[in-house]
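Notes continue from the previous slide.

Worked example: a multi-chain complex. Inputs as given:
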Amino acid sequence: MTAPLLVLAWGNLSRGDDALGPLCLAALREQLPENLKAQVEFLEDYQLQIEHALDLIGRQRVLFIDASLNCAAPFEVTGLQAAQDASFTTHALSPQALLQVYQDMQGEPPPPCTLLAIRGEAFELGEPPRKAALANLEHARAWTSQWLLKAS
Amino acid sequence: MTFPLETAAHPEHLRRVAIDPVSRVEGHGKVTLLLDANHHIEQVRLHIVEFRGFEKFIEGRPYWEVPVMVQRLCGICPVSHHLAAAKAFDRVLGAAPVSASATAVRRLMHYGQMLQSHALHFFHLASPDLLFGFDSEVAKRNIVGVAQAHPEIAKKGILLRKFGQEIIRITSGKRVHGTGAVPGGINKLVTLDERNSLQRELPQMLAWAQDAVDIAKQLHAQNPALYNNFGSFRSKLMSLVRADGAMDLFDGVLRVRDENGRILFDQVDDQRYLELIEEEVRPWSYMKFPYLRSLGAQLGWYRVGPLARVQNCDFIPSARAEIERQAFVAWGRGEPVHATLAYHWARMIEMLHAVEVIAELLADPALLSGDLLTSGVRQRHGVGMIEAPRGTLIHDYEVGDDDLVTRCNLIVSTTHNNQAMNESVRAVARDYLDGQELTEGLLNHIEVAIRAYDPCLSCATHALGQMPLEVTLLGADGTLLDQVQKSPQGGLTRTT
């Protein structure tokens, strides 16, 4: 049975602050209360791809988590709407474009989706996340725990 | 080394145009064009700006960690790195060949990866250009545009890719960060339920893969002038083939054909690849330029990937794909097909072959039971080679007595195609840009040529908003003359 809540994070654990999304996901998974386990599915990937539209089917709410070089510290939360954009690279298939694909394929609006962008600074291969990024992550994790409680 | 249009005689008098980064490829690439006052092309280079540190990332690690760790080198073909590393450490453990079950599970994983990667490229990355045209409206020229105009094509692409990824999940244990292949074998078999669930989807996948070959073939038939000539040039072709000359994307011996299709080298043991290949460093790119050692850098460069593999083999050992290979070869009228855009057609033939191989493997009882691991006499050195979706992938390791990796050399598929991608970009620049004012559509022609190779320039890094397309014009004295940015919505903004 499909869990009503989906948390989808992407990034590379070996590329510095790019790990923020997967690290946030891992922390949430670890501390998820027992009574919520059937309510939430956690998914992780290296990058957002078009087939993730299939993962949105049957959800009540979806939270996307990614590292961002552009958002304000410690994190930003944005409500997402389906939108057609150029999606110049496969890396950068935007959550908005993914929702548009869902809408085009399913013929219905996607479930309510939220983007959590966690501020990062550097994405070098083999580097650990920076201290500032980990501090941002802690704020984001606390916010996400509350989001999960409210959403469920 | 001197290649036409690689280095201008007097760059100080020329205007510089940069396409940075190249879009809809994996990683970060940049194209620079030097133009004279009459907009004539004097120099064209594809730079790879972020291709360092992979070996350093691995050296000093315990060997058993490496097949899992190398998946983080590349977010788009992690399975290829996973399997190439495992194959190399089979040699270090003296465990080659691994058991029949390990071979079957690994092959299934690999052909699942081939299927999902080729589906992603053709349906999601290339189809916007191929279906709408290279000059079409930029806001529509993307997968979302394809999904709106051709929903059935977009859906097939998504579901083919999903099927390939499900194979990866089942064989590697997880959707990402899989651990299925380990030095000396595998750590799990496929269950009966898993096997049956995949088999149920096979007829549909086979039909869609056949449809994709037909689409690619039709594109060539409808516009042969474009598809035969766009970014085209003659080159040597290199790939692994099975010992009997059949296509084998998982294992084999190296074969090279010359520009006329004659076999130059054959039956080269993958452990001895350094006797065949050497790499050259050029000061303007982080990516090396491999070439055939005996011919030198000027004459010895070659192409890898689907275009090479489909023509390098003597036959494809699966019925439908072999019919399509013969049609492809016939298109060349006795000569090898050198057209850059033919990569798409060849890629779809391989995707069809991958589905056929998956069907065979799913019927193999070794998937469900048998030995997981093999052991033997420990060695210090091992090479793992595989035909990754983009071409020949080489992992080469030395391991100390303390089990730590002491030396590592990786030659990834896209590196083999470095010279070829530069040649394609130069051919397009000569044919389409010389003497023209630069427009987004014209610049996209260059990107189309690069995308045909499905290059993986460096992967798995990203951040929201990090990927604008920027074109900069500099005067002969370095003065900024013009700067254009392409927004995430596809609009062009002039900042000067």
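Summary box: Residues 458-471, 486-490 of chain B have pLDDT under 50 and may be disordered. The radius of gyration of chain B is 22 Å.
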